[in-house]
């Protein structure tokens, strides 16, 4: 399955919790999706899946959510992309908290 990642980011909110986004499309799907990740300490991650642009098929959204639950490699690829974007932004800082990817 080919995944095209369009945009990623990871930042800390005002409570110093991690909030990140990965906007992506999957080969064969017309919709563009956004995963929003959340973690208090960068160890255990919650996510929500939404359409990134215009609303699409709810059925496709539910199928993709099920796929993310079952396919750890796909989920980790999308999470890693967001985490890696934060690490790149923080590379100029003298100290930064390590984020556990899993």
In short:
By secondary structure, the protein is of the alpha+beta class. The chain contains 2 helices and 4 strands, in the order E-E-E-E-H-H. Helices cover 30% and strands 31% of the residues.
Question: What can you see in these coordinates?
Answer:
By secondary structure, the chain is of the alpha+beta class. 30% of the residues lie in helices and 31% in strands. Strands 1-2-3-4 form a 4-stranded antiparallel sheet. Strand 3 (33-39) and strand 4 form a beta hairpin. Mean pLDDT is 86; it is low at 91-98.
Q: Helices and strands, in N-to-C order?
A: EEEEHH
The number of strands is: 4
Shape: globular
Alpha plus pi helix count: 2
Distance between the termini: 22 Å
Rg estimate, integer Å: 14 Å
Structural class: alpha+beta
List segments where confidence is low: pLDDT < 50 over at least 5 consecutive residues: 91-98
Strand order within the widest beta sheet: 1-2-3-4
Mean of all residue-level pLDDT scores: 86
Q: Please give the share of residues in helix.
A: 25-40%
| Biggest sheet layout | 4 strands, antiparallel
Strand content: 25-35%
Mind sketching the topology for me?
Elements: E1 3-12, E2 18-26, E3 33-39, E4 46-51, H1 58-70, H2 72-89
Antiparallel strand pairs: 1-2, 2-3, 3-4
What keyword list fits this structure?
single chain; 102 residues; alpha+beta; four-stranded antiparallel beta sheet; 4 strands; 30% helix; globular
């Amino acid at each position: 399955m080919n995944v095209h990642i369009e945009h990623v980011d990871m930042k800390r909110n005002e409570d110093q919790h991690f909030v990140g986004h990965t906007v992506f499309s999957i080969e064969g799907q017309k919709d563009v999706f956004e995963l929003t990740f959340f973690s208090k300490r960068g160890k255990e991650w919650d996510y929500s899946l939404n359409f990134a642009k215009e609303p699409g098929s709810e059925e496709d959204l539910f199928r993709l959510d099920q796929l993310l639950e079952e396919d750890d490699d796909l989920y980790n690829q999308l999470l890693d992309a967001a985490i890696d974007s934060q690490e790149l932004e923080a590379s100029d800082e003298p100290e930064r908290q390590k984020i556990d990817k899993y």
